[in-house]
Amino acid sequence: MSAITASIRGVVDGSRASMAHWWRRVRATPAPLIASALVVGAGAGLAAVVFRWLVQTATLIFTGTADYAATTGHPANPWVPWLGGAFVILAPAIGGLLYGPLVHRFAREARGHGVPEVMYAVARRGGHIPGRVAVVKALASAITIGSGGSVGREGPIVQIGSALGSTLGRITRMPETQLRTLVACGAAGGIAATFNAPIAGVFFALELILRDFATRSFAAVMLSSIVASVVGRSILGDHPFLALPAFTVGRPSEYLLFAGLGLLAGAVGVLFSKVLYLVEDLCDWAWRGPEWLRPTVGGLLLGLLLFAMPQLYGVGYPVLEASVGGTYTVGFLLLLVLAKMAATSLTIGIGGSGGVFAPSLVIGAAFGAATGEAIGLVIPGLSGDAGTFALVGMAAVFAGATRAPITAGIILFELTGEYSIILPLLLAVIVATGTSRLLSRDTIYTRKLSRRGVDLTAPALPALRGTTVSALMSTPPPSIRGSQDAREAIVRLGESQRRAAPVVGDDGSLIGVLTAADAAQALASDEATASRTAAELSERITVLAADEHVADVLDQVIGAEATDGVPVATDGRLVGWLAPADVLRAVPS
Predict the structure, then answer these.
(1) Taking phi first (over 0 means left), then psi (-120 to 50 degrees means alpha), and beta for anything else, what does residue 127 get?
(2) Could you tell me the pTM of the whole model?
(3) pLDDT recorded at residue 263
């Protein structure tokens, strides 16, 4: 009887090992990535719909209106009519009392505008974003915007969608390269569903998040964006995000004026970026209390600014449309440019959660409209073109702030549905991008990382040029057999006193890596039982070839914090390990 039992157990163990081997091979093909991209797209589309509802609900609770910036004067909140219009002084402080402790306690990376954190996760952390970030970011940003924070929705939805992509990738144990792509899929899906702009979502993810236009990444991101758009349109409707009148360019000579607008708008975009971080530094310098209380106290200052100029309340799309429509005078438009910079910067500086994309559009529309109206005073024949200059200004200021010309050109076309001004728009965007590059080394997104000492564009160290991985790699950590019992493998990993251990097959081929984080997660969920093997707990990560140049893989090595290095393999067999310490030893002091 025992022999029969042993035979059955052997068959079961063999089947389990075969299934594990089959799943490892499937994960190495594009099929799981494509399937996961579709799931992430659907999730990001639903998340965008839910997030929009959260913002609308929070705004209704705090103001009693659908969008307080669309009202005239200082209407009272129907919930507290005895306060009159002065309720806006208290609204940001009350909102801060809600989201301040939430962010401080559960996900501090949810503070700020979100996109830099996603860029850092992709470039330095292999695409790892904690799943709780999506929930905390959604709630904190909705409360921030609803209570008067002068920020946008794009940063939060990018971080929310990216967290969904990262979580799914880690659950399915995707390799790091595919995990990064799934993060970009989430970002693209969020943008696509939020703004009904599927093409812009793709290029936002590729140009700003992945900073790569590889064919496999492009296909996955595009599919995710399409699915998210379908989900968003089925629930929110299919219409341009901004309802604006048609505009045209009458004379070819006007292109010189649009080039001049691009020059000035690029400088305005850089100014916005510098003001944002200057105000944040001032808030850091002035505040000496607990961080969770900072949004409450700072919210009173923001409230005073909103009371002086209620058009700054929330995202500000009604103000943008009014600027394009010629509602405001030149003086008020210029005041709006400066005030929006100050309100957005203060919202971020006190610890608010929200994006800078929408504020850059509002600033660009106001600046472009002011420029167009000023030109109309000097050249009477162009007095009716202020709206065209406003649309072009939106794209140009965004390009100047982010230095993402492809995204800037496409997203404005999709947001407005206006193809008639695509040529002057692209011209202004190119000029604005060049101006931004001349005036500043960083963009509004990368400046936050540069202040932490992270440079995503840093060239390779001269000492590493021409150096191959084989020249610097060290002996790999003690390996673990894939067929070994999971609990025994975890014990062996602990005895090695390393953060990770390579897992190899019976034939010596590299299966993956067992990290301390994976081991701790398995123990916490009581998954490391005798029925599981080390191969099933292992994680597929990037593998280097011995003949690769260190300069080409430096980002991967530095970003491999969880494994303290990257395995090196030849013909699928482990031959070495390249850790950050190995690279540092090659750099002369």
Answers:
(1) left
(2) 0.76
(3) 95
- The Cα 329–Cα 326 span in angstroms is 8
CB 92 within 8 A of CB 84: no
Q: How confident is the model at residue 90 (pLDDT cuts 50, 70, 90)?
A: very high
At 309, is the pLDDT very low, low, confident or very high (cuts 50, 70, 90)?
A: very high
What would the DSSP string read from start to end of 183-219? Answer: HHHHHHHHHHHHHT-HHHHHHHIIIIII----HHHHH
| Host H or E run for residue 502 | strand 500-504
Q: Is the Cβ–Cβ distance between 208 and 404 less than 8 Å?
A: yes
Question: What token pair was written down for 131?
Answer: 């799943």
Q: What is the pLDDT of residues 347-370, one digit of tens each?
A: 999 999 888 999 999 999 999 999
Closest Cα partner for 399 from 389, 390, 411? Answer: 411
**Contact between 159 and 195 (Cβ < 8 Å):** no
Of 586, 582, 548, whose CA–CA distance to 565 is shortest? Answer: 582
What is the SS3 string spanning 544-587? EECCCEHHHHHHHHHHCCCCCCEEEEECCEEEEEECHHHHHHCC
Cβ neighbours of residue 288 under 8 Å, at least 6 residues apart?
none
Using an 8 Å Cβ cutoff, are 327 and 358 in contact? no
What digits encode the pLDDT tens for the residues 270-283? 999 999 999 999 99
Sign for the pseudo-dihedral over CA of 325, 329, 330, 335: negative
Task: Write the burial class of residue 251 (CB in 10 Å: 0-12 exposed, 13-18 middle, 19+ buried).
Answer: exposed
pLDDT in tens, 477-521: 888 888 888 888 888 888 887 888 888 888 878 888 888 877 877
Name which of 168-182, 265-279, 446-460 the model is least confident about: 446-460
* CA angle, 218 then 543 then 509, to 5°: 125
Q: How would you class 76 by CB atoms within 10 Å of its CB: exposed for 0-12, middle for 13-18, buried for 19 or more? A: middle
Q: Which stretch, 119-133, 335-349, 405-419, 533-547, has highest mean pLDDT?
A: 335-349
Nearest to 110 by CA among 146, 153, 155, 148: 155
Helix, strand, or coil (residue 429):
helix
Place of tokens 């997660």: 521
Q: Which residues have CB under 8 Å from 144's CB, separation 6+?
A: 95, 99, 151, 347, 352, 353, 354
Two tokens, residue 213 = 């236009």
With b for 16 or more beta-carbon neighbours within 10 A and e for fewer, the 191-214 pattern comes to: bbbbbbbbbbbbbbbbbbbbeeee
Going by pLDDT thresholds of 50, 70 and 90, the confidence category of residue 458 is low
- DSSP code at position 81: G
Between CA 189 and CA 395 the distance in angstroms is 21
